[in-house]
Amino acid sequence: MSRADRGTRVMHQALPPALRDAVDDFAEHLSRVRNRSAHTVRAYVTDLVSLLDHAVRMGCVDLAELDLSVLRSWLARQRTMGAARTSLARRAASARAFSAWAHRAGLLPADVGAALASPRAHRELPSVLRADQAAALVEAPSRQAPPTNPAGTDPTLTNQAGADAEPTDTAAGLASGATGGAEAVPLRDRVLLELLYATGVRVSEACGLDVGDVDHGRRVIRVFGKGGRERSVPYGVPAQRALDDWLRRGRPAMVGPRSGDALLLGARGGRLNPTTARQIVGAYAETAGLPRTSPHDLRHSAATHLLEGGADLRAVQELLGHSSLASTQIYTHVSVERLRAAYRQAHPRA
């Protein structure tokens, strides 16, 4: 448990019983009814506990006493403590979500959070690789030895599915006695990189894929995104070749009792951990001489290259699994900025 989680737990326990119950019921609503991920529920609960702790300090002993002035005071205090605009926007969203739920549940006489304004989060343009850089990255496992230690993590780090995140998740580690063979690691790394760039899926979605989620005939993968929403995402011929090699020669060498139906495996045979996947991507980018790159940068690159190639914005929204078109529109700004940069570089009167 992190220091922040311990602090939240302490504040939660210090709340009056009725407020503690409200927090727990809201968390269960997010998890069971809204089908939010454990990470999202934890973020909402952290914000809510902070809000209610502030309300108690202001003299609110009952949830029905929570009003707009308390919410605004809480956000103002967060701002004076140095919270970024993005953090303030997220915390305001948490407060609005709780207020709406509490009003529906009869715990608040009115939805006081509906009138709560929040600062517009400043959105920086995402980091995007050029097409040749993305190609160099996804082909790196076929051209170079695996990085010495792409995992580089605490060997006790595992996720809920029993996934691997360990410093032996390398060719050398496998050859020295871990499950599988050294030749399987580049095949696993290649299919990971190919899928991330070919489909633009989130790293958690890639690591969550099962063997049965791959439709080889139609070259489509079935992805379960945020909120458990299912979508089908196509991939191309290079990714198909990487998948065929991995399933024929790589996965059988790494499979073990903990593998289940997982498509991508870690060194101990369990489902590949997203943390390890991030470090694999970063390590190959570094050894290939590319800018610092994450799986999300590959997602950004895939979306940008699709739009630059003429794909419809709505189609890209569907591929990425965005619930709102506004989330996808940022990639139009990326494309415009790249066009402006090329113009400034090439035009004699720029």
TrEMBL record:
Any one GO BP annotation for this protein: DNA transposition
Domain of life the protein comes from: Bacteria
Alphabetic keyword roster: Cell cycle, Cell division, Chromosome partition, Cytoplasm, DNA integration, DNA recombination, DNA-binding
Active site: R202, K226, H296, R299, H322, Y331
One GO CC annotation: cytoplasm
Family note: Belongs to the 'phage' integrase family. XerC subfamily.
Protein name: Tyrosine recombinase XerC
Species this protein is from: Micromonospora saelicesensis
